[in-house]
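Task card 7
Instruction: Convert sequence to structure tokens.
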Amino acid sequence: MKKIVIALCLFAGITLTANAQKFAMVDMEYIMKNVPSYETANEQINQVSKKWQAEVDAQMQEVQKMYKNYQTELVFLTEQAKVKREEEIVAKEKAVQELKRGYFGPEGELYKKRQSLMKPIQDEIYTAVQELSKEKDLQFVFDKSSDASIIFTSPKIDISDAVLQKLGYSK
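Output:
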């Protein structure tokens, strides 16, 4: 009898705890695609990226041209001239690699540009999610687009459209 009472108490406690927790799901990818300022920022990033990539490619072509000229003139160069040309080519190639790293590296200009354009949008969305969580008394909000371990979510718990409405982008 004692074991049954303990088991019933445990079962009731688990049931009450499970019912007390509310959760919802958002699709950040969906939300971002429906925020016009995100698309504008993304387009700006793409334009800057293409411009910088073209600059890097042009300088890399210059390095390749220098190397081809070196190979063509190799038989006519003195040993000292060969060394000098090789050093020039290597120095130019290092400069191009440094430029590429400066633009596209982990702490490069593209990263900084993306941060400066995207962070305010992400903060605004995060604030809207927080406010909705407080209004609906939610303990957990999962992002469907970033977690591969979520296999299925019910549309009933998706608050993505509510987030967009909170941001002023009703669908």
